[in-house]
Amino acid sequence: MMPPPVPSPGPQLRDIHLPPAPSWWPPAPGWWMLAVLLLALSLLGIGWWRRRRRVLYRHRQVLDELERIAGQHRRDGDGPALASELHQLLRRVARQHDAQAARQRGDAWRQTLARVPIDAATLQQLLALDQRIYRLPHRSTMQPAWRPCGRGCGWR
């Protein structure tokens, strides 16, 4: 009798090889989206910061000008000059909010000033400033005139 046939060992197999580890570049799409989102947020933050810095700089300039005007009035006591300078400062500040503010009179000027978040008494004082520059000086009414301008600019 013949011995049973021995099955052939088949092809020679090698050990299992793992694929190479993924490289760190290029990143997966999620990382790209995160990078774009961070870049957009950074640009928005920088833009907001620059606008805020410009606004604060303008506020500081107006307040410095207001202090200069008040100091000059304390030194020389010239009421009409105080009213005139305050009126000019108020018009310059209002022009930042409405380009036509420098030429407005009467109701148009009243509506422009009404946009500023201030109480009614301060609004009336600011409106009266428009008439004070044409009156004869009266020290009792001119001395506190710079205070409502600070509030009218919305920064005091």
Q: Gist?
A:
This protein is mostly helical and 156 residues long. The chain is built from six helices and no strands.
Count of individual beta strands: 0
Question: Strand pairing plus helix content: what structural class?
Answer: mainly alpha
- The helix content, as a percent range, equals 55-70%
Taking the sheet with the most strands, its summary is:
none
User: What's the Cα radius of gyration?
Assistant: 37 Å
* N-to-C order of helices and strands: HHHHHH
Which stretches are low in confidence, meaning pLDDT under 50 for 5 or more residues running? Answer: none
- State the separation between the terminal residues, measured CA to CA: 117 Å
- Please state the overall shape, judged from the principal axes of the Cα atoms: rod-shaped
Assembly type:
single chain
Mean pLDDT across all amino acids: 83
Estimated share of beta-strand residues? under 5%
Q: Helical element count?
A: 6
Molecular structure report:
With 156 residues, this protein is mostly helical. The protein has helices at residues 29-76, 79-97, 106-114, 120-132, 139-142, 146-152.
Write the layout of secondary structure elements.
Layout: H1 29-76, H2 79-97, H3 106-114, H4 120-132, H5 139-142, H6 146-152
Provide tags for this entry:
156 residues, rod-shaped
